[in-house]
Fold this sequence. Notes:
single chain; mainly alpha
Amino acid sequence: xxxxxxxxxxxxxxxxxxxxxxESTALxxxxxxTEQLILRTFREGTHLLEAYGLAIMGEAENIVNIPQQAxxxxxxxxxxxxxEQRRQVLEACLAELTMVAAQPKPKISSRAPAKKxxxxxxxxxxxxxxMAAKKKRTARGIAKKPTTAAKKKRAKRR
Length: 158
């Protein structure tokens, strides 16, 4: 979950750029830092890295399903729109991290092999009991007749 905290901090930093006029060098440093964070967290080839790159240019509406504002002219305020898209991509990263953290992890317990061993022991125990009962019946002369061809062949071999 530490990565989620880092993404939340990046969103807070971006809010400062949104409310005031940002220097282009400070915003460029922020972008480089954020791209490295996305790479480190989600590895190469993630759609989020591509979306962030498009958000820098203000063209990420289609890749992240960002709704376009109906009343606002997109070309009118491109820098503000690019910062808003960056924020939405960062929120998508944060949501993906929390979704991954919320998924139940498969339980690896030390009891699982014991259950298999216990089941195998029960199966062996049943087989031994059946053999013992069969020997008793055979000794008394009350052996059951084999019902299938395979059982008949086994009976002949004995």
